[in-house]
Amino acid sequence: MTEPTVSLEALRQRIDALDNDILRLISERAACAQQVAEIKAEHEPGAVFYRPEREAQVLRRIMELNQGPLDSEEMARLFREIMSACLALEQPVKVAYLGPEGTFTQQAAIKHFGESAISLPMAAIDEVFREVEAGAVNYGVVPVENSTEGVINHTLDSFMDSGLRICGEVVLRIHHHLLVAETTRRDKVSRIYSHPQSFAQCRKWLDAHFPQAERVPVSSNAEAARLVKTEWHSAAIAGDMAAKLYGLARLAEKIEDRPDNSTRFLIIGNQDVPISGEDKTSLVVAMRNQPGALHDLLEPFHRHQIDMTRLETRPSRTGVWNYVFFIDFKGHREEPRVAAMLEEVQLRAAEVKVLGSYPVGVL
């Protein structure tokens, strides 16, 4: 019995020593971040402290160097929080997101900026755009597409009238749970609250398990969770953040019909992001209404071997039966072959608006 106790004590002492080293190194990193802030403030008036391309490069490097036993994404998340805390010493980042508190968009904002960012909920997507445009916040986070339900048209339409740029992206795996309160009579659930998109993403499960329950659409899953607190016969479809915020229990977990259900969010801001090494570009193109217009638009992408990842069509606001195309593709606008392709597209299109080049989501 003695030998294992001594061995365990030795391991604990080793852990304590490693903790001391980690503490010292994090403090040194934070001090370096403060020095960076002082140099920028002295030599770069109006300097940008948050650098999306730099953070993406650091996180990719950490994931490449990681040898376990922690998973590479878990390791990157730890470094994300360290970087977030250090950045807050330089200049706290203010982020507006589509609220209310407890939504998946807030979860995406925290995933991208870390817990040290100041996140502010907005009631609508256009309010997120307005807050960033007015300078009340540094960045905004808005949903743009879901793997099950497709694009969020309100977000695409907001870009038509905005001068903001896309500075980054976040892809969040969406897990829906059926949540109940302490006072809920679990065998008497007759009403379920949720956002309409969540109902659509869980339709088959609901048909199989609660076919008779009334489905009440609300403005957000967080609002659904709030309503459940006051009713004994209700449940809500929502995620982990809403469950934690309102103290709800999971009656059923991961009830989404597709296990790969995910939502992509965009980070919007006022800055152009330099090349990170693994980037994506988004643009809006208005084509002249003539035969072969779509072919003329796509041909330069094919010839320059540009990998287009999304093509969406929206009605133009400038004329009846005219359309604009929202396009995502791999590459940065400053890369020579991308720049050559964009120059050709501009010659063929009525209007081209580059929404931004930004790092591909790391986490």
From TrEMBL:
It comes from the Bacteria. Signal peptide: none annotated. CDD domains: ACT_CM-PDT, PBP2_PDT_1. Its EC number is 4.2.1.51, 5.4.99.5. NCBIfam families: CM_P2, PRK11898.1. It holds the Pfam family PDT. Residues 94-270 form the Prephenate dehydratase domain. SMART domains: CM_2. Residues 2-94 form the Chorismate mutase domain. It catalyses: chorismate = prephenate; prephenate + H(+) = 3-phenylpyruvate + CO2 + H2O. It is found in: Cytoplasm. Residues 282-359 form the ACT domain. Pathway: Amino-acid biosynthesis; L-phenylalanine biosynthesis; phenylpyruvate from prephenate: step 1/1; Metabolic intermediate biosynthesis; prephenate biosynthesis; prephenate from chorismate: step 1/1. Catalyzes the Claisen rearrangement of chorismate to prephenate and the decarboxylation/dehydration of prephenate to phenylpyruvate. Keywords: Amino-acid biosynthesis, Aromatic amino acid biosynthesis, Cytoplasm, Isomerase, Lyase, Multifunctional enzyme, Phenylalanine biosynthesis. This is Bifunctional chorismate mutase/prephenate dehydratase. The keyword Lyase applies. GO terms for molecular function: prephenate dehydratase activity.
